[in-house]
Amino acid sequence: xxxxxxxxxxxxxxxxxIEITSFASLLGAIAEVGYDDIVINGFTNEEGIGxxxxxxxxxxxxxxxxxxxxxxxxxxxxxxxxxxxxxxNLFNDALNKFxxxxxxxxxxxxxxxxxLKYGKxxxxxxxxxxxxxQGYKPELEIQ
Length: 143
Prior knowledge:
Strand content: 15-25%
Order of helices and strands: EHEEHEEE
Radius of gyration: 14 Å
Helix content: 10-25%
């Protein structure tokens, strides 16, 4: 679903600071898939502190809502029947292409034994309602 060159997303947090290169990569991934229901849960605050998580420091890593089949920006769990595994994995491919090499998630599926592409299981169980993007290693071309 491409929107004639427009990039649309929703930002739903008071942790509004994103490091500029990381933001460019995130926009690249959103443009790659053309989805207009991406929800960014937050990166860091203006001081670059990812309260309460230290994994958000400096605005490089952040949180996104899982994608759903109804293509709305509703909040849901990865185990919800409306979770859209296919679109999520295509978006994960785009995130990886633009430098986010590790995605912290939770198990899902009928047997709770599936992980998303590039997924890393969170043994603390804190990522059932959002995807944490990290492992940022972009391949940059300076011209």
